[in-house]
Amino acid sequence: MQLTGPLSRRVSWGRLAAVALLAACLVFVSGCAARQAPAPIPTPTPEPAPAILEEELENWDETDAAHGGEVVPGEVQALYQRLDDARLECQSGIDLLAVGEEVAGEERFARGINAISELAAECSAMAGCDHDILLDSLFTLINEQNLSLKRRAYEVEQLEGNIERLEEASIEREQGTSSFAAAMPELEKTATLLKGTDLREIIELNGPVRAALDDWLTWLRPNLMLSYENYQFMRGEVAPVYESAGMPEALLFAIMATESHGKVHAVSRAGASGPLQFMRATGRRYGLGEVDGFDERFDPAKATAANVAYLNDLFGQLNDSLAKALAAYNAGEHRLHRIERRHGTLSLWDKRMYYALPTETRDYVPRVLAAAWLFLHPEEYQLEFPNYDTKLVQVELGRDASVGELAICLGQEFNPNGWFRTVRNLNPELKPGDQVAAGESVRLPAFLEPVYKERCLGGELVETALSLHEANYPDEEEVIPYVVRRGDTLGKIASRNRCASLSELAALNRLRAPSYVIHVGQELKIPACN
User: Cys-Cys with 296: which of 10, 28, 152, 288 at CB 3.0–4.6 Å?
Assistant: First the structure.
């Protein structure tokens, strides 16, 4: 098949195989590349996108091409969709590499590259299959992997030198002012598109959005209800952040419902964390760091402020297109800019641009818009959101208790789902197994305070909760001490030890995802093999 653009000769399978081999070599040597410290790599400033042509996508046909408007055979379209999945696998590996998860990142990247190589072999035997697409994917992913490793190496080198400067800056802040608020005065600004604008004037009920409405109202309805319940108790913290920026609350709820179902401690396979799912690097860019070991991506109010600032930047880069800004929020701004360079004058809903998005993003954008629509129009669908008195109080504990123990003794009073998630969300700095000492306070819905005093200060249920809490952790004689050596990561330790997974080691040693930071000389507990 003849190549388009500046290359005029045919692409051979041998060339694709060579590119795949190059990718494998890069994966193999990534450990060496990550230890080098190159000069800082400037982030390119994207060119402004052309004006958007709003075109409605109603009854779109999956056999329609994403390229040039030509009809693509069904088997080729299916191959392109599998290519999207493989690219997403590679990208998640690159994201893991960016936060220092070398073993998991390299494995995931290699799986994606191998899948693309296999697809290339299938493509060569299919009429109408465009090798350019696969070749472009390989070169792009390899370049992104290299760039991620270089950036990671530079960040690691700079981190130690920046700690002292950041600590000094925190001391100079006015008391009660967060580092984010002090560093981000632009938070007072907001995108022209949404400031004071009714979201109902923006959401287009096209085919994909109507399909997402159907999802939320059928098999995703329990998740929608759970999302709203979780959101209700955070609303007093997060809604004012959007309100002060002139942003519609429905959008905040919709992003939170789609990203995490309102679970403050949600962590994705790629390491995105918190109710609004920030990757570590992006979170740091918008002021979400670590304070006394607490990852601020799990702070609902601070994560919401970062979300506002990030969306404002995306609106500015993407000609105030809400759909494109949401796509960039999910797939990454750099990927969206690449797609825009190819299809910049098109609406996101144009088939050529829509099918250039990763599969996950094609679901994500309509799902956010549909959730926002339901937040604004529940009565049109006989949708009844749960309604709670969301007044909160600080309750002083009368005895030591963990979040899990509190959830057991509070039971299902006023809520058939119980209160574990709510108590966790309201006390994001606590881990489920942390014992809070008597005399210290936890935040609870006000109507649960009398329930706590009646049920959680003593009795058989409280003793049962304590015994169950203790059963969550192995006895000391069932664990082996291990001293961390140079070059160790938690993933490498888990791969050498067949008796515990990475997540089990992290839970046993109270290490936070996704980076699981350990240091040379640290003593870890490793379960003994029985």
Answer: 288
Backbone angles phi, psi at 290, to 5 degrees: -120, 135
Distance CA 429, CA 444 (A): 14
Q: What are the tokens at 460?
A: 């058989």
Do the Cβ atoms of 376 and 253 come closer than 8 Å?
no
The model's pLDDT over 131-143, given as tens digits with 9 standing for 90+, comes to: 777 776 776 777 6
Residue 444, classed as helix, strand or coil, is strand
Label residue 122 exposed, middle or buried (CB < 10 Å: 0-12, 13-18, 19+).
middle
Structure tokens at 84: 């999207």
Nearest Cα neighbor of 179 from 315, 311, 100, 283 is 283
pLDDT score for 23: 47
Count of Cβ atoms closer than 10 Å to residue 471 Cβ: 8
Model pTM score: 0.58
The domain ranges of the chain are 13-155, 185-381, 392-471, 476-527
Q: For residue 234, how many other CB atoms are within 10 A of its CB?
A: 23
CB 375: neighbour CB atoms within 10 A?
Answer: 23
Can you tell me the distance from the alpha carbon of 431 to that of 492, in angstroms, rounded to the nearest whole number?
A: 24
Spacing of C-alpha 109 from chain mean position: 18
The CATH number of 185-381 is: 1.10.530.10
**What are the structure tokens assigned to 198, written together?**
């009714």
Output the CA–CA distances (angstroms, integers) from residue 62 to 70, 80, 329, 355, 365, in the order listed.
12, 11, 25, 9, 18
% the chain with pLDDT above 90:
41
**CA nearest to 490, candidates 514, 463, 459:** 514
What single letter denotes the amino acid at residue 498?
R
Q: Which CATH superfamily is domain 476-527 in?
A: LysM domain (3.10.350.10)
Cite the DSSP H helix spans in 99-130: 102-124
